[in-house]
Amino acid sequence: MKTFEGNIHSKLPNTGTSIFAVMSGMAKEYNAVNLSQGFPDFPISPELIDRVHYYMKAGFNQYAPMPGVPELRKAISKMFKQNHGASYHPDSDINITSGATQGLFTAISAFINQGDEAIIFEPAYDSYAPAVIVNGGIVRHCELHYPDYSINWSEVKKLINQHTRIIIINSPQNPTGSVLTELDLKELEHLLKGTDIVVISDEVYEHLIFDGLQHQSVCRFPDLAKRSLLIGSFGKTFHATGWKTGFVLGPENLIKEYRKVHQFVVFAVNTPIQMALSEFLKDRKNYKGLGKFFQQKRDFFVNAVKKSRFKVITSYGTYFQLLNYSNISKKPEMEFAEELVKKHGIAAVPISAFYHDKQDNKTLRFCFAKEESTLTNAAEILCKI
């Protein structure tokens, strides 16, 4: 194919390929143990697969309603009432999405206009900033404090001005595994009183939280809930990332604006999967034990690397574990991550990729959503370095 000879005015001139695709590509090329991209290597529930098959055979194979099938929206409404005491009406307050990334992009697109500002906490999941920029917005970065990745709310206050349109929060946080506390949410709630700022709360790992901690959802705080869009993911909850099915919750006036954009981005989401999920959610045991399940994997991996020269930074949620390698090398994170793949046969993600200025703390992210055999193999490699 001949190339276009005209000038291309890129909307994202400084954006390249996602770090996840880069490291997974390297892992495949060098046949390395891949703990870089966040996906499980174990099977999902056979019962859930059977339910999808059932609804396919039953003829649920055409477009779903734009907001999502009513059965799934009702099941989500019930789940949030049971888990958080929050009331989201199935018709007006809930929309099904083609994965969390689409939900996030659409939410940002719905509320960011040219020149509007968005506050993002770094290190940040890599889809946030590009979605703001491609919509003509300006990103204001607020740094999480290393090594516990906590928020200094006085620093956030300094970033807020008349142009601030959204604040994006993420808990449990990818890539760090840190979680927001009740005090954090109350600080944010207080900070935003009297403003028109919308909160976009990425809560895709809400069920993957450890050490007896309670997930502090925005829906638990009335003054936050009324200004927030909450993003969730069934891919993370049910180990089915390839199904790309998630949801967004919010008050009717925010969801109304969200749907104006959603209908032209994806319109509708996979019908038989929605129907299957609506049934699967009725039994709370299908998601209530996830914290314990993944904490066992976290503990298994951490114990397996104890004899290594890597320093463990505690993960309180998600299925990611940070390891600091400052006792091993002074090389930049990307260079060291490449060395791990090429010389040692293990792939991780450099945390510097999640900072706009590529801040380097000699820290890598490893995914522990793997079979114990995979984690054992990975730990043996790490302990030899």
Task: Please give a structural write-up.
This protein is an alpha/beta fold. The chain has two domains: about 20-45 and about 290-385, Aspartate Aminotransferase, domain 1 (Alpha-Beta Complex), CATH 3.90.1150; about 45-285, Type I PLP-dependent aspartate aminotransferase-like (Major domain) (Aspartate Aminotransferase, domain 2), CATH 3.40.640. The chain contains 15 helices and 13 strands. The protein has helices at about 20-30, 45-55, 70-85, 100-110, 130-135, 155-160, 180-190, 220-225, 235, 250-265, 270-280, 285-290, 290-305, 335-345, 370-385, and strands spanning about 35, 95, 115-120, 140-145, 165-170, 200, 230-235, 245-250, 310-315, 320-325, 345, 350, 365. β6 (about 200), α8 (about 220-225) and β7 (about 230-235) form a beta-alpha-beta unit. α3 packs parallel to α11 (about 270-280) and α13 packs parallel to α15 (about 370-385).
Stretches where pLDDT is under 50 for at least 5 consecutive residues are none
CATH superfamily of the largest domain: Type I PLP-dependent aspartate aminotransferase-like (Major domain)
CATH architecture of the largest domain: 3-Layer(aba) Sandwich
**Amount of beta strand:** 5-15%
CATH topology of the largest domain: Aspartate Aminotransferase, domain 2
Total strand count, please?
A: 13
Strand order of the largest sheet: 2-8-7-6-5-3-4
Q: Report the order of strands and helices.
A: HEHHEHEHEHEHEHEHEHHHHEEHEEEH
Going by helix content, strand content and strand pairing, the class is: alpha/beta
The largest pleated sheet is described as: 7 strands, mixed
CATH class of the largest domain: Alpha Beta
